[in-house]
Amino acid sequence: MSEKGFLSAADLDKLKDRFSAAESRLKAAQAAVQKADTNLEYAEVRAPFDGWIGRLNYDVGAVVSPASGPMTSVLVTDPVYVEFQVNEADFVSFRRRGAESAEAFSKSLGLSLTLPDGERYEQPGVLDFADVQTDASTGTVEMRAVFPNPDAVLVPGLYVTLRVEGQSGEAKVLVPQVAVQETIEGKFVLVVDDQNQVAQHFIQTGAREGALLVVNSGLEAGDQVIVEGLQKVRPGVTVSAAQKQIDPQTGALIQTGEASQ
After folding, report:
1. Residue extents of the structural domains in the chain
2. Is the entire prediction scored with pTM above 0.90?
3. What is 75-166's CATH number?
4. FRET label pair with 47: which of 124, 181, 186, 217, CA 20 to 30 Å apart?
């Protein structure tokens, strides 16, 4: 237009300068909007996972920064991890279970929980982690199982009893803990033989199963073990035995009838 005489070259330069200045102000305003959006996003803290929120350490409206410390805690409730320890002898046995992988072996284990009220948790678990070294002070290895918790029955910090069952089909002899005595020579139980005489059997015990102990050696299936009146009998005496059943979880005894003489 300046070539046709409608606008002088000086006025055109002024307009170009004003246009450039307006573009600069627009970019500065856009940058301010972007910064405000970023600051607004920083003002809202989102948890990266679902869970239960704990106690708030700051009230609404308080000014916080990375140096202020945690505002609260978020607990993951599904799934829930159960940490436990196994002794190094059992861990070595675990590592010797053939050429199959640790993952394959973990799937062959049956893991279940007993809750503090004595009820069994209905969801089964799986082995999730085994440490790569033993704790020299305790002679144990840290392990971890994972359990689904869709109904939030389990909460972090809850004390539960973990039951580990192998699925190899190998039968084991169990004996009530109340029947096991110990001397300097080792652990033993008193049994009643076919002649109704008391005999002393030294045993080697393994894992605990509720109120029962696994017997690795010293007893055979069908042996009659004395569980009451241990202070009143001694090896070699003849007794009249009464058969009783035991609750495998609580150890409570129930009389079922008289044994044959």
Report:
1. 2-42, 75-166, 173-258
2. no
3. 2.40.30.170
4. 124
